[in-house]
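job 3f2a | input accepted
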Amino acid sequence: MGATTFSGPVKADASFVLTPTTVAGLPAIASVDIGTTYFVTDAATNATTATSDGTNWLRGDTGATIS
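job 3f2a | predicted structure (67 res):
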């Protein structure tokens, strides 16, 4: 998949579809760009998004590290 850089807000006329995965299925943090986001189906308390901050995968609902 290619990467695109934007210099302003992004407007979409359709929805974005996040790739679903499990916590164990998240790629190694060093292999993804900061801001990469997945939909994690088996996070500790409920399904949530996980976004890379370059060091950890962070939960979208609490900001806590997904382990």
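job 3f2a | The CA atoms of residues 39 and 49 lie 4 Å apart.
job 3f2a | closed
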